[in-house]
Amino acid sequence: MAAVNHISSKLPKHETSIFTVMSKMAYEHKAVNLSQGYPNFDTDKHLKELVYQAMLDGYNQYAPLAGVSPLREQIVDKIESLHGKKYDKNTEVTVTNGATQALFLAITAFINPGDEVIVLKPAYDSYEPAIELNGGIPVLVQLEGKDYKLNFEAIKEKISSKTRMLIVNTPHNPSGNVFSKEEMLHLEQLLEGTDIILLSDEVYEHIIFEEAKHYSASAFPNLSKRAIVCASFGKTFHNTGWKMGYCVAPEELMAEIWKVMEVNVFCVHHPTQRAFAEYLKTPQHYLGLRDFYQEKRDKFLALIKDTGFKALPSNGTYFQLLDYSRISNEPDIEFSRRLIEEFGIASIPVSVFNKDKVDYRQLRFCFAKTDDTLKEAAEILKKVK
Q: Can you give 300-319 as a three-state secondary structure string?
């Protein structure tokens, strides 16, 4: 067989993920790692026992493509209870290998070469590569200022005859913002009369603070009719390594997603689906996250109040942005590397998520950590001058 002399990359500009870079540096320097978005505490013992019991009960072969019926039923009931939208469990729900796969399935199912997809920056770093792999064109709109506010006029200006999809994320990673009801209504009005599909990334749906409320695209009739809503069990139940999520969408949209799912992984881990179907019967398992994570956010903010960092408290997610402009004028990538090398703490520079890598001298810290880890991190941050 002749050697391959030239490979044409489908992602020629794709670089190693900042998460990989920072976690590798954190490991090499034995740093406290508040960079990647995963908890360093364990998932509920009862949930693990439910997975094991499902294995013992023989649920070890392929599950149905869309997911097992009891889990789809619980997902439908949860959304109806929280957002008033009744999805059909048989035609409008799919259990996926994490929310990232749900996002990829949706983009692959609908984006053709030359289609434009509006992406609000800063944004999760899987959106744009998925669009590009399918021949689509990411159209980037930067959220405004250091507090990352929506600018609907800027979004409207980017809508064209080629616009196939708009991706939104609320609660928002990395800013911690939560879209208001008024903003969701404005979004609904903006898209009315178009054929644009809304891809709504809602993986932090249950991690919200103070008086904030999560307004799902499912809750608005003229959004839900065009929306694919993606969610994550891993983010909700402290087990990101299980890679379990789901998406809901109108039947005509879900039918296309199933076509991609069938030739992608077909189905996801069967015993874990059975476990979640039972676990979701107790709503407090997810409704209790507000108090749980707000306590961690407040503890982290209290611990760092005497540092040189400045925080605008996060309204949702388990991330907190810290402004370091009172400490240094270094670019955020350089500063975050120095924090690892000289002080032993890892974070994520926010500029990597922004359009044109605009740099507001902000770092993202994950506070989904044990109290001991947060205390250790705060003691380090106090030393940063």
A: HHHHCCCCCCEECCCCECCE
Q: So what's the pLDDT on residue 366?
A: 97
| 22 contacts 347 by C-beta, under 8 angstroms | yes
**Other CB atoms within 10 Å distance of the CB of residue 152:** 13
Q: Are the C-beta atoms of residues 250 and 223 closer than 8 Å to each other?
A: no
List the domain range (segments joined by +) for residue 154: 45-281
Q: What is the DSSP string of 122-171?
A: S--TTHHHHHHHTT-EEEEEEPBTTTTB--HHHHHHH--TTEEEEEEESS
Q: Is the same domain home to 172 and 202?
A: yes
Is 101:236 a contact under the CB 8 Å cutoff? no
Residues 267 and 376 in one domain: no
Q: pLDDT, tens digit, for every residue of 190-219?
A: 999 999 999 999 999 999 999 899 999 999
d(CA 92, CA 203): 18
Query: Which pTM was predicted?
Result: 0.96
